[in-house]
Design goal:
By secondary structure, the protein is α/β, with parallel strands linked by helices. The chain has 5 helices and 4 strands; from the N terminus they run H-H-E-H-E-E-H-E-H. The strands form 2 sheets. The chain has a two-stranded parallel sheet with strand order 1-2. Strands 3-4 form a two-stranded parallel ribbon. It is globular, with a radius of gyration of 18 Å. The N and C termini lie far apart (63 Å). The mean pLDDT is 77.
């Protein structure tokens, strides 16, 4: 007979093993010349990233829509709840640079500052789209 506590411990061990694999990938892929930090916890990825984002300039996360809220961050919650820019990287791309960028923002001083800070990154893209929810609402009213 297997008890519920044993199942939870097995799942936790599997999660910790997967986190160790991901950390090894992170350390292998991120050059030492780039200032970076690895963080991990066995909890909701969205909650962990939201709390960790308080000290971050940019949140980089996978763009895949996760079915399991305990294994993948909810990008919408990150964008709306962290107050930090979120870069959702596609998992199936042929080269390292996106050709199209969408910038969604509202008319605030902080949004203008974030967009100004992002200009060097945006300058290399062929197509740029800007979406301002407040202006879109006024046009459709």
């Amino acid at each position: 007979m297997v008890y519920e506590g044993e199942i939870m411990q097995i799942q936790r061990t599997e999660i910790e093993k997967r986190l160790a694999e991901l950390r090894a990938d992170f350390e292998r892929l991120v050059p030492a010349s780039i200032s970076s930090e690895w963080g991990q916890a066995v909890c909701s990825p969205t909650h962990f990233l939201s709390v960790s984002a308080r000290a971050a300039d940019l949140i980089v996360t996978g763009g895949d829509k996760g079915e399991d809220v305990y294994r993948a961050a909810d990008i919408r919650s990150l964008v709306l709840g962290t107050g930090r820019p979120v870069l959702a990287a596609a998992s199936q791309i042929e080269d390292g640079m996106a050709k199209t960028v969408l910038v969604a923002w509202k008319e605030t001083r902080e949004a203008r500052r974030a967009l100004t800070d992002a200009l060097p990154f945006l300058a290399g893209h062929r197509r740029r789209h800007r979406h301002n929810r407040q202006r879109a609402r006024r046009r459709h009213s």
